Amino acid sequence: MSEVPSPSHGSSSGSPSVSSSSSSSGEVSPYVELERAAWAQLAGTAETVLTPEEIVRLRGLGDALDLREIEQVYLPLSRLLSLYVAANSRLHREQEEFLHRVTPPRTPFVIGLAGSVAVGKSTTARVLQQMLAHWPEHPNVALVTTDGFLLPNAELERRGILHRKGFPESYDRKALLKFVIDIKSGRDEVEAPIYSHLVYDVLPDEKVVVKRPDIVIVEGLNVLQPARVRDDGRTGLAVSDFFDFSVYVDAALADIKRWYVDRFLRLRETAFRDPASYFRKYAALSHDEAVDQATRIWDSINEPNLVQNVAPTRSRANLVLRKDADHSVRYVRLRKL
Description:
The protein is of the alpha/beta class. It has a domain at 107-223 and 234-326: Rossmann fold (3-Layer(aba) Sandwich). It has helices at 36-40, 52-58, 67-98, 121-133, 153-159, 173-184, 253-269, 287-310; strands at residues 31-35, 109-115, 141-145, 189-196, 201-211, 215-219, 245-250, 319-323, 329-335. A 7-stranded mixed β-sheet has the order 1-9-8-7-2-6-3, with helices on both faces. A hairpin with a 5-residue loop joins strand 8 (319-323) and strand 9. Helix 3 crosses helix 4 and helix 7 crosses helix 8 (287-310). The longest helix is centred in the first third of the chain and has 32 residues, at 67-98.
């Protein structure tokens, strides 16, 4: 979470980036790393189900999302995820048979999706939601962003951490954990709070209701955080403990910063001009003033959060989408089974 919202809702030395695969040196790795061309071939005979108009609607500011990106990156990924869902269903049936129980409906397949501010994770989540819903085995795909589980601004101000919005301590982690546990417990309906990037706060009287989904995508900065150690030394549960698959959207730190500043400039000409916008104060900035302001926000909030909290969770993901300087995915790293 940054001080500047996503318009849709929601490497230099030492930067948090995925290292190159060591397979070329003959070393054994727990990951399979595929360049984009090789990954694209894994789509098989599947065809994209999104129209050009839908792709435009799903695209975030600055994203390089087009039909080619859909076909070469997201079509193979949706196919892989569909295989995981099917395998999960088979395992569910076999486990119930082993327990000699009448097989109840399986619980939803939960996908965690993490990454930095401005890296394009919200676009990735929306694309996967639309594409996975077109597979006949799992037509009901819900998308929930963790922004709704941010503490209200009034509470953040009371705690003196409004400037740390998006850091792990700025979330109602108990509520988020309960939401995911309820999903994996098989409850028919589960509610999640809604966040408005326009007013930069949680909407107290609005909820999104998730009803008997086949798949739930949980998207957010810190969804892959490990469990915290309690004051008594015990380790609790983490949201990521209930994910069946996880994706991390990655890029070089310098590129993400540039995308963030570019997005700020675009929002200055669009969403910031809305009279109801929390960020309307930035609409009157000159170009140079806007660049300076965006850079200050990035340097003081977003980069520290990325380096300290978000990037360290990348190794916990099952799959990493590594982006190039133009926002297109360059290679995919998949953890071996």
